[in-house]
Amino acid sequence: MTTAPAQSPLLERPGAVQAVGLDAGVAAHYGDPMREQRMLEQGLAVVDLSHRGVVTVTGPDRLSWLHSMTTQQLTGLAPYTSTESLVLSPHGHIEHDLHLVDDGETAWITVEPGTAPALVEWLNSMRFMLRVEVTDVTESYAVLGEPIGNESLPAEREARGVIAWRDPWPAMGSDTAAYSDVDPHPAAGRVWRELIVPREQLVEEVGDRHLAGIWAAEAERVNAWRPRARKETDHRTIAHELDLLRTAVHLHKGCYRGQETIARVHNLGRPPRRLVFLHLDGSGHVLPEEGAELVKAPGERPVGRLTTVARHVDDGPIALAVVKRNTPVDIQLLAGDVSAAQTVIVNP
After folding, report:
1. Which domain holds residue 50?
2. 28 lies in the same domain as 102
3. Most CB atoms closer than 10 Å: which of 130, 198, 260, 311?
4. pLDDT digits (tens, 9 = 90+) for 50-93
């Protein structure tokens, strides 16, 4: 179950062009995507992510309860420590990617646009007799993204009720595994955080800072090899395929739904598919659509699909894709008539 996002008031800013698809409701750009991306890289811009869902979990049992159902070690989580955890199906397929930070009284979770109601419905079905309360607060809280992660929030922001989640990507967790052999990781040193702000303060929180559209944020994400739920995932995706164990899975915590698949593939097998980074041929005027099939040669059967396509200010047309594990790593792939040069992320 998904719900349509509300239109952001920031779409009223001059030059705003609304995004389509998953990111409808916020701006794709504000008239100059490349400049916006450069401003974002320099830490001078903020991104409207107010279409993301926001869920709160309160009550004294909240962390142990969430710990028991998801992939991450959450018991004993210190206040204002950010983490990432997955909700899996019984067969280990990714259903939700939780961006979670607890302030000592409330666990704040942001999820992909339109998915908060489904998450809340499932969590409520698992409450039983525990002292927890789950609330979809998307109508009351909005999300902003900014490339600042190490600094603490200024006191005046905390006083206004702003909560910050820092993306752990690509740092390794305390008891997990990497499925990429690249060292150093291209996103090493990356800083990115989501600010959860009262929705009525969204415009005020942006203030006079520059705005960058979702195209700029997506280009940064693709260049960091950062997978995103509902972009890089489908109904069959397991965490190993996307190198998501590194930030979202604790390998020796207690039992949870889907754990058998996590353990079996990690200990006994290999994921059937793998995430790759692609440089796309930009000599044409049109890039392939997200979801386009990838083939080794014209007329051959597909070996995968494009999941996210972006134009990077320095690297040009780039993409993330999911391909079959046995796809040769040393060949160029084709998306329609556009060639795509692979960089291995998940080692086959």
Report:
1. 9-248
2. yes
3. 311
4. 999 999 999 999 999 999 999 999 999 999 999 999 999 999 99
| pLDDT reported for residue 5 | 57
192 burial level (CB within 10 Å; 0-12, 13-18, 19+):
buried
Mean pLDDT per 10-residue interval, the chain, length 348 residues: 74 97 98 97 96 98 97 95 97 98 97 98 93 97 87 73 94 94 94 96 94 98 98 98 98 94 95 98 90 96 98 97 97 96 97
Same domain, 183 and 241: yes
Total domains in the fold of the chain? 2
CATH of the domain at 84: 3.30.1360.120
The pTM of the whole model exceeds 0.90: yes
